[in-house]
Amino acid sequence: MRTDTPFLCAIALLDITQRWYDLNLGHELTVEPIGVLEYVVPQRWLGRPDMAQRLGRPAIAFQAGYVRNWSNVSGFTYSQWVVGVAFKAGWRF
After folding, report:
1. Of 38, 75, 83, 85, which is most buried with the most CB atoms under 10 A?
2. Is residue 3 within 8 Å of 35, Cβ to Cβ?
3. Secondary structure element (H or E) that encloses residue 54, with its range
């Protein structure tokens, strides 16, 4: 999913993992929805017109996720929030 502005990108995904163990130990199911909002730094903020290309088209990404783990073993079920910021750049060779 993308927004209409060239400087903003929004991404949503759902990661589901199920792990099976020996017949006596059972299994776990982990569900993790993740959302990312990325802002590409405009060229005019960097001064010269070619500076954005030289710096690798820098972007700032804000990420948030929620992890929920279910287990049939008592004491191994948990939930957790994960939040972070990343600075991103990329060059083509």
Report:
1. 38
2. no
3. helix 51-54
Whole-model pTM? Answer: 0.66
Domains of the chain listed by start with CATH number: 8-88 (2.20.200)
Nearest to 68 by CA among 60, 78, 59: 78
pLDDT, tens digit, 9 for 90 and up, residues 5-49: 568 889 999 999 888 777 666 778 888 999 999 998 888 888 887
For the chain, what's the residue count? 93
User: How far is Cα 77 from Cα 73, in angstroms, rounded to an integer?
Assistant: 8
The residue type found at 32 is: E
In the predicted model, is pLDDT for residue 86 greater than 80? yes
Q: CA 19 from chain center: how many Å?
A: 22
Q: CA–CA separation, 72 vs 36, rounded Å?
A: 31
| DSSP assignment string, 65-77 | EEEEEEESSTT--
